[in-house]
Amino acid sequence: MMSKNILGLILVKFITFSLVLGHLELPIPNEGFDSALYEEVLDEELCEEQLDFIDSNTLLAAFFADAGFRIPKGIFEANNVDLGNYHQCLGLNQQLPTSELQGKYCMIQVPLNQAINFPINYGNSSFDPNLLSLDEMEKIWAKNDAIKTEMLGMSGIHRSISPESPFSNLVFRLAVCIPRSCTTKQALRVFDALGLQYTDEFCRLPNDKPWVPADTVAVVVFSIIGFLTILSTSYDVWQTVILKNDPKSVSALSTAFSVYTNGRRVMNFTSSDGNIECLDGIRALAMAWVVLGHTFSTETTWANPIEAGTWVTSWQSIWIVGAHVTVDTFFTLSGFLVVYTTTGKFTGKQLIKNVHLFWLNRLLRMFPLLATVALLEASFLMRFGDGPQWGIVADHAERCRTNWWSTLLYMQNYMNPIYTCIGQTWYLAIDVQLHILSPILLFWVLLGNRKIALTALFGGLLAILTASTTYNFINNFPTTISGPRARDYLVNYYVNTLTRASPFFVGMIFGYFVRTIKIRLQKWQVLCFWLVAFSVSTFIMYANYPTRQPTITQTEENLFNSFIRPAWALFIGSMIYMCVNGYGGPINWFLSLSVWKIHSRLSYGIYLFHSAMMFAINHRALTPIYFSISGMLFKFLSHYTLYFIVTFIAVVLIDAPCSTLFKLILGGGVKKPQKHEADIESSKKEALE
């Protein structure tokens, strides 16, 4: 009991410290790139000297020109970006008689609609893109940024919406390579002579990533984990493999960090009696769907935006743009297991008495991998690669260096929803908040009276649906993360606990149904159920298409926002119920395959790791990517395989050891569970993962 109190005190101290630290102005460098370095290298006189040298050296001038300025390829495919040759530019280094000439890579934005002053007998030329009368191209340009903003929003990256005028988007983003001592204004003086207007976007220099405290913390923490892993694994192998001692006789604390023991635990495919095996398949497939959707939405720039935009706004893309309901699958499973794992294990009074452990167990179980990803994103991932579009990765690092505390406290959906460390963790915040509130209903469910339990569960669902529907009709949100109200939709609807809670409540109802209510159905009734169920799920998916059309009314948008998510939860919950009661047939067989078990165990880690790594990989690109369905599916398979491997390593080295330590601290030692307790413990582990 004393160990539990000490752990609770430590948690309170950590929360207090984090809240205080989050509001202090500390002199800690959080920036991804060293802005001071960019100022230090500027030297107007040296710049003029080096520009004169370049003008007199044709080969050197050709190298600078080749590394930079080009007209984008595929303008009529709506491509407005040329990234030049990033590494060639930063690799330029030549010793001059009085100085060292090095390259600096910059991106500038050049509006297409502007007057150009030709110096030789051409007078003035004013290009007006409206004179092209390219109606279809204008429509695509109007949609292009909105589509990309929505896709980025789905992946946890949120940007401002571009101006409403279609041709305000007709701005070329061009790379230029200039001497590091120069500003773009000095180096691009020919632009001034022509009257060509442009604005600076950013510049990059070699070795411009500063060493920050997060890097030091990462080196220390992961070094300690590595040292403990070597010691623990060596001891475990000596005891169980060389000396052939019974593993149960070996100290659990001594083998907590053992790769040998933890690897066997993770790779265990056996199931306890009474486990709901179809949950493994549902969780694994839902996680794969998340990775698939983010594979499409996290790409940097398309070489053929017209083709990509046409596909995204077509019927064929519904399985991608409708992937937002995947998160509601996880909310449903979470609510389901909260009730399923506590019914029969606690009474209402026992729950209230141990509610602090109920909350603490959930928080601690999720914490190790969450903290790991936050630390990696603040440190090592920033140094994973580089490229002309590495600014997004730097932005992620800055967020985690500044707002890590709100993520570790699961408050990021309210504290800083636009600048969240690990963008997709808004889901974890809502899930934890719902778990904290769940004992309000669980108390009545655990009283043992079916009428009281059902009244509480359905009353809770009705209350949350009424409140969220009223809220939606008052605010009149859009249905997508695009348009002038994108920020409002994201902050006040998409990551709002009230508007996302209904699937959790639906899951709680089905968790109680599975535990307490059994039914008998005839074959025709089972067949009718599955026909209706898949018809409803298909309708839910394709209901996303009209929401992206200009003809949709505000009432339809409000109804969609209010009921599409609980409807999807109803489909998932009823499917689980039918599978558990023996009416799943081939569906239950497929979802219960042993191959899904390890995917299910790793799903939480894959959810945390995939987005940060996906951005780090995609933003190493040196040229715009050509969009094709086959190419994106291949990238999805490669992405998922990589995240699976990385998550497996993280679970074995970090998550499994921490899980063992928490059990030792909270339970006073690892005890062999009885048969019924093993069933509950296994289901409880599924809920936490």
Q: What do these coordinates show?
A:
- The protein is mainly α.
- The chain has 2 domains: 35-204, no CATH class; 269-549 and 556-688, no CATH class.
- Helix content is 62%, strand content 6%.
- It contains 30 helices and 7 strands.
- The protein has helices at 2-22, 35-40, 44-56, 58-66, 86-91, 135-154, 184-187, 189-194, 213-242, 259-266, 278-297, 305-312, 318-321, 326-342, 348-353, 355-378, 391-408, 412-415, 426-437, 439-445, 450-475, 486-494, 497-500, 502-516, 523-542, 554-580, 586-591, 595-618, 629-667, 675-688, and strands at 81-82, 93-95, 100-111, 115-117, 124-126, 171-179, 199-204.
- Strands 1, 2, 3, 6 and 7 form a 5-stranded mixed beta sheet that branches. A two-stranded antiparallel ribbon has the order 4-5.
- Helix 16 (355-378) runs antiparallel to helix 17 (391-408).
- It is globular.
- The two termini are 26 Å apart.
- Keywords: Membrane, Signal, Transmembrane, Transmembrane helix.
- Residues 44-205 form the Nose resistant-to-fluoxetine protein N-terminal domain.
- This is Nose resistant-to-fluoxetine protein N-terminal domain-containing protein.
Biggest beta sheet attributes:
5 strands, mixed
Distance between the termini: 26 Å
Q: Provide the β-strand percentage band.
A: 5-15%
Q: Average the pLDDT over all residues and give the rounded result.
A: 83
By DSSP (H or I, 4+ residues per run), the number of helices equals 30
User: pLDDT under 50 segments (min length 5)?
Assistant: 1-28, 129-134, 151-168, 669-689
Characterize the overall form: globular
Number of strands: 7
Structural class: mainly alpha
**Rg estimate, integer Å:** 28 Å
Percentage of residues assigned to helices = 55-70%
- Please give the domain count: 2
